């Protein structure tokens, strides 16, 4: 399976230019990739605050349909973060769009909105409870978004549903870099799945996004990394046969006991 990380700088609040970046990258990489991955909220930018209400769209909608056409024309799947309107409900969703080469438009909505330090997502975004798994021509894919990666129950649940690849799209600024560098490979090891990490790059006001897109094998080995703090396009090939070898040598998926998690959550020690 051929993967491309489109670590491109986005323009805050300019969907048209960001869409053009997606289309240009897809066209340029069409012979080299099956899956093009772009970061969290790439379509709009991250720190839009109240402007998010005007940049958000329903899915399907004009932007998602344009990305879908791009996926079909270039015979690839595309993952891209965007703000999503959901009916007339008071809060938006922080969503990962997955467009497949057969014209399918799919989505994962961020489970855990982050609301500490410089982050104020809960003011705008509502967390979601669905954890879908997506069939693409090459692999079964699960998606998480940024802060989600710090909740191992999400990736563990995906591993119990036979995913091959877990994609984490992120908007991680430089102050959180060290945490992601430790947690992301750990999630690959504990799920024995390929883990793809795609992060925003560039500056928005006082926030510097560090880029550093990276892929990890089911044993947590780095398969390649994009540049730090710079635009880059990283092309890698995943050998899906590694999944069988990794899961035979370390059977964490088959040995997982979901009832233990629930029992531990209900157990209180009185002191």
| SSE string, helices as H and strands as E | EHEHHEEEEEHEHEEEEEEHHH
Number of domains: 1
CA(first)-CA(last) distance: 53 Å
- What's the mean pLDDT score? 94
CATH fold descriptor: Nitrilase/N-carbamoyl-D-aminoacid amidohydrolase
CATH architecture: 4-Layer Sandwich
Q: Describe the strand arrangement of the main beta sheet, using strand numbers.
A: 5-4-3-2-1-14
- In total, the number of strands is 14
Task: Give start-end ranges of low-pLDDT stretches.
Answer: 267-271
CATH hierarchy, class = Alpha Beta
Number of helices: 8
Largest sheet: 6 strands, mixed
Radius of gyration, in angstroms, nearest whole number:
18 Å
Bin the strand percentage.
25-35%
Based on secondary structure, the structural category is alpha/beta
- Within CATH, the superfamily carries the name Carbon-nitrogen hydrolase
Keywords:
alpha/beta, Nitrilase/N-carbamoyl-D-aminoacid amidohydrolase, six-stranded mixed β-sheet, 8 helices, 14 strands, 28% helix, disordered C terminus
